[in-house]
Amino acid sequence: PDPASPFFATTYLRTALGKGLVDAYSTIGVFDWDEVENPVDPTMFGVFGGYIYNPLSYTRLFGARMPGASPEAIDKAFFDERDEVPAYHAEPWHESVRHAEKLGATAGWVLTTDSYPQIEADKLMADTARATRPDFSTLDNFELMNRARSMVPLLRQAMMTGMISSTLSSIGTGVVGAITEALGDPSMSVRLLAGIEADSAEPPRAIWRLSRLVRASKDVAAEFDRGVVGLTERLRASSSADAKKFVSALDEFLFHYGSRGPAEWDVIALSWEAKPDVALAIVDRMRLMTDADDPAARRAEAVAERDRVLADVRAKLAGDAETLGTFEAGMRASTLFLSARERYKANCIKLVGEIREPMREIARRLVAGGLLKEVEHIFMLMADEVDEFGIHPDRYTQKLAERHAAYRTLFDVEPPFAVDGKVAPISQWKKRTAAQVEVAKSGDVLKGVAASSGVATGIARVILDPAQLDDFEPGDVLIAPQTDPSWAPLFLAASAVVVNVGAVGSHAMIASRELGIPCVPSVENATARIPSGATVTVDGNAGTVTIH
Fold first, then answer.
1. Which of 161, 177, 205, 393 is deepest in the core (most CB within 10 A)?
2. Looking at residue 15, what DSSP letter applies?
3. Helix, strand, coil % over all residues of the chain, rounded to 5
């Protein structure tokens, strides 16, 4: 959703994430390395106007070559159904018997395996990287830079594993969806995939526990009552025993989940570790909830409904052993690979955090020495400037400040949703501040995608920044541009979630199903069309949002 920092766009986006994606697709059989343009240094992710674009062409190639799939089906599983997305045009070379055979074997493995050991190995790798982080005060700037660089090969490995799981997650969900549709109720597939255990639900649970500590202590609650700005420093300076207990729990939280935060793939983003007040803003909203609002109860309801639907489907298929067996394989694969998809993100983001923090330490030192104007300016570096910067940072002081000013202007442009070969100059892009969208009125029904089952009515709260939550109350309907795992704690307080973009495989869907709340993604311009403060009904079964 945000422009990429030059450091992100020119370093590990290419060397780790891009190559990891090629590793993944070549491993499962989508293509060979030498089919990729410039295989030595492939450009898998497009960067236009500072905004990163996913390679839809390669994803569609997966659909074209996978037996029983199609590019159109892949579009539906992973992307919005929007007019801006260019239509697929078949080319003779898209079809390949050899790749179809390899992909068929991959699909066979997906539908028969009970485990995915590599995702667990990557979790251990990422956890070890965090656990063995050295004391930065003992390292000079060159050693800090090398520490950050040493994470890139690990990130490439985690990206490869993750993109395998992410891509293959569509196989099991596709099987379940096809069978429930044949049974006459496609909404069952939404309910069947609720309550799946996912790593993205762990930070919300941890934040819930922190909020209970606040409710249990007058001293800690009083500090929260004074406001979130400067809250971390006030709590650390407090002599209260309860404050010390809370700070200890906060530090434990930051150790495990501090790399998370808005726009967390980019090192320039203010993670919870870099700015704990961002996480405490969510705790502040969560502390308003009583113990009776424990999200575990809501998840238990979703799991119970899933088990009921599961029993119903099994009963309907009892006389058809072959279809029942296929259904069971699809459920097993869905559970395994949707969970793996969320775990890969957690693994990658933890490694991104191990790039971010040493770079921020270098920047803090240079700011203190007058060689950088702001910490974030270090992320204005391009890949080919890093080495010289390490020796002569004074040559970059003004250059990086000017580049940062130019970078900030990119936040006010509206990037095209899709790019098909050519992209208009940034000067021709619409300004966000000038965008005109018709606001929905009472009685309007907005259509999106049925992503997480259930129906909820509440007050709509448009949240563009998860750090700005003053108006958000427990039970409100969260309206967001899109979400990543750093938004998941807000889902605990929300009665339902609506997002501008995303589809059945999106983070908002997975987190909502895990927590047991209705979710409707792919409601175009929801944050502009739905008035904050309006009463709305979100139907996660039908994929609709009704304005009252």
1. 161
2. I
3. 60, 10, 35
Type of residue found at 447: K
* Superfamily of chain region 445-547: Phosphohistidine domain (3.50.30.10)
d(CA 390, CA 401): 17
Q: Which of 440, 408, 415 is nearest to 530 (CA)?
A: 440
Q: Within 10 A of 270 (CB to CB), how many other CB atoms are there? A: 19
Res 106: pLDDT: 96
Concatenated DSSP letters of 452-479: B--EEEEEEEE-S-TT--TT--TTPEEE
Going by their DSSP bridges, the two strands 430-431 and 413-414 should be labelled as antiparallel
pLDDT of residue 509: 82
Local confidence band at 77 (pLDDT 50, 70, 90 cut-offs): low
Give the separation between CA 132 and CA 330, rounded to whole angstroms.
39
Name the 3-class secondary structure at 480.
Answer: strand
The sign one gets for the Cα dihedral 333, 336, 340, 342 is positive
**Secondary structure E strands in 57-157:** none
Rounded Cα distance between 288 and 292, Å, is: 11
Predicted local distance difference test score (pLDDT) of residue 124? 98
What count of other Cβ atoms lies within 10 Å of the Cβ of residue 455? 15
Half-sphere exposure of 284 (CA within 13 A, CB side): 23
pLDDT tens-digit profile of 175-210?
999 999 999 998 898 889 887 777 878 888 899 999
Integer Cα distance of 490 and 474 in angstroms: 9
The distance between the two most distant Cα atoms of the chain, rounded to a whole number of Å, is 76
CA torsion 332-335-338-343 (nearest 10°) is: -120
Ordered by start, the domain boundaries in the chain are: 199-295, 445-547
Taking each helix axis as running N to C, give the angle between helix 141-182 and helix 97-110, from 0 to 180 degrees, rounded to the nearest 10: 90
When pLDDT is averaged across residues 382-402 and rounded to a whole number, the result is 97
Contact of 13 with 4, CB cutoff 8 Å: yes
Please state the φ and ψ torsions of residue 371, each to the nearest 5 degrees: -100, -10
Name the band, by pLDDT with cuts 50, 70 and 90, for residue 269.
very high
- Locate the DSSP E strands across 28-169: 46-48, 51-53
Mean pLDDT of the chain: 92
Distance CA 514, CA 294 (A): 14
pLDDT at 134: 98
Phi, psi of 47 (to 5 degrees): -125, 110
CA 75 to chain centroid, in Å, comes to 18
Mean pLDDT score, 252-260: 97
Q: What b/e sequence results for 189-228 when a residue is b if at least 16 CB atoms lie within 10 Å of its CB, and e otherwise?
A: bbbbbbbbebbbbbbbbbbbebbbbbbebebbeebbeeeb
**pLDDT at site 78:** 63
The predicted structure's pLDDT at residue 73 = 79
pLDDT at 504 over 80: no
* 8 Å CB contact between 261 and 272: yes
